[in-house]
Every structure is written in structure tokens, then in C-alpha cells.
Specification:
It is a single chain. This protein has 276 residues and is an all-alpha fold. It is built from 9 helices and no strands. α6 packs parallel to α9. The protein is rod-shaped, with a radius of gyration of 28 Å. The protein starts with 21 loop residues before the first helix and ends in a 5-residue tail after the last helix.
Length: 276
């Protein structure tokens, strides 16, 4: 009687798994940035005589003097903040409910004791990407125990293949939107530099014109250059910290997956002899 074998797919991660429409996050951040620039930073209460063309009275008016590139940089900064929150929530789901090192240690202990029921219970309780991959490897282990006609090395390779395939299914969730943060690392600095150059052009234009009447234009040009420089550096700094932090988290999770996958393959090799 023929038996139909069916490879079980990893369980879906429960909880927040990330935002796939990152473009709309950028659009919303741009709307917020430009709205704040024209309605709050450019409000008359922040300038002498209530006119944004006059000298600013506080930090908000000074920021407005940075020019139209300011809300562009603010869009990048808000995007980094939003993406960082999104990645934190997604990776929190991916890591599961318990501490990852403890979960890995418990899984290895259950494998050493040949207690696969306990290992599956640990996966069901942990949830997340690691638990999904380990569960897929355990199912492949059980399937190989009932699969005749294959050599021991082939069965171990099948278990490792199931582990790798399950890992690849989880990786898009782990690394999603990180390239956007990585792009903003450079884009923030370049946009700030653009604002700096525009401000310095305005300053030198005021100097070349000469006369005391152009002192306001000179001041505005210098202000525009310095404000854009400051916000560009701040945006890139935040993006670098965020990208490196989440990349490190993904690396830790990947290392944990590799460690457990190796343990499962080694357990099969130790518990089974070569078929005649």
C-alpha cells in the first residue's frame, strides 16, 4: 500500500511580522515632516513681528530658516524612527516568547536525551522564527526515521536541507526593511551636505553683493548650512546605530538556528546506524 509523504511547512509566526508596504511609511513620514515645517516651524509666533522673513525668536524659527531641505531630512529621520520601531516589533516576534539562549540550551538538552516530544513542546511554547525552523527540522528527523531506501548520510543531508529551507523562509521577515535603514545612513549625510552647500552658496552671494542690507541674507545662508549639517549628521548617526543593532540581532538569531540545526543532524547521526 503506497504511502503519500507530505513535507510539513513551518508554522507561521504569531504576532507582528513586519510591514511590507514600506513605501507608505515613507509617504506618511514625508507628510508629517512637511506639515510640521510649514505649520509649526514656520508659524509667525516664532519670528519677530510674526513674519517668517524676519529674525527667528526661538529654536523652531531657527530650524525653519534651514530651508526646504529641512523637511526632507526630517522625512528621513522619521522614517528611521518608524522603521526601527517596526524592526523591533518584528524581531521580538521572531525571537519568540522566551530567552533565546535558554531555548537553544533546552532544545539541545532534549535532543541529547532523545526526548523529541519535549523538544516539540518547547517549540510550541517558544513560537517565533527559531521555533518554526527547529520544528521543521524535527519533522524532517521523524520523517527520515520512517523513510527506507536511503543511506544514513543521505538522511542527514535531507534533515539539513529541511533546516536550511525553513531558515530561508524566515529570513525575509528578519531582514525586511533593513536595506532602507542602510540607505538612509548615506542618504542622511548626503542630503545634509546638499543643504550645507545651498546655504553656503546663499551666504557667498550675500557677501559678493556687499552692503549692510545683505547681512540678513548672509545670516540666513549660514543658518541654513549649519542646520542642515546638524540634522543630516543626526539622521545618519541614528540610522547607523539602528542598522547595526538590528543586524546584530539577526546575526544572533541566525547563529542560534545554525547551532540547533547542527545539533539535530548530529543527534540523528549518533542514534542511527548505517542501513545494510
Amino acid at each position: 500500500m503506497a504511502t503519500t509523504q507530505k513535507t510539513a511547512s513551518p508554522k507561521k509566526s504569531q504576532g507582528f511580522t513586519g510591514v511590507r508596504g514600506a513605501f507608505w511609511i515613507i509617504v506618511v513620514c514625508a507628510i508629517i515632516a512637511f506639515t510640521l515645517f510649514f505649520t509649526w516651524f514656520g508659524h509667525g509666533s516664532h519670528f519677530q513681528d510674526g513674519d517668517s522673513a524676519n529674525h527667528p525668536l526661538d529654536i523652531w524659527g531657527t530650524i525653519f530658516k534651514g530651508g526646504i531641505i529641512v523637511p526632507v531630512i526630517h522625512t528621513l529621520l522619521l522614517t528611521v524612527i518608524a522603521m526601527s520601531i517596526e524592526r523591533w516589533l518584528a524581531l521580538k516576534t521572531a525571537f519568540g516568547k522566551g530567552a533565546l539562549p535558554k531555548f537553544v540550551a533546552n532544545i539541545k538538552a532534549a535532543l541529547n536525551a532523545n526526548d523529541f516530544a519535549k523538544a516539540q513542546q518547547l517549540c510550541d511554547a517558544q513560537k517565533g522564527s527559531v521555533a518554526n525552523v527547529v520544528g521543521a527540522s524535527l519533522r524532517a528527523y521523524k520523517e527520515m526515521e520512517t523513510t527506507p531506501g536511503l543511506k544514513k548520510a543521505q538522511k542527514i543531508a535531507k534533515i539539513q536541507q529541511a533546516h536550511e529551507e525553513a531558515t530561508q523562509l524566515e529570513m525575509p521577515t528578519l531582514t525586511m526593511n533593513l536595506p532602507i535603514i542602510a540607505t538612509i545612513v548615506t542618504l542622511g549625510t548626503l542630503t545634509g551636505l546638499l543643504g550645507t552647500v545651498v546655504g553656503m552658496i546663499r551666504s557667498f552671494s550675500a557677501l559678493s553683493a556687499g552692503g549692510g542690507a545683505d547681512s540678513a541674507a548672509l545670516s540666513q545662508g549660514i543658518s541654513e548650512a549649519l542646520i542642515n549639517t546638524a540634522f543630516g549628521i543626526a539622521t545618519s548617526w541614528f540610522a547607523v546605530v539602528s542598522y547595526n543593532y538590528f543586524t546584530n540581532k539577526v546575526d544572533k538569531l541566525t547563529f542560534a538556528l545554525d547551532e540547533v540545526g547542527y545539533s539535530i543532524a548530529q543527534t540523528y547521526e549518533a542514534n542511527h546506524t548505517e542501513e545494510a
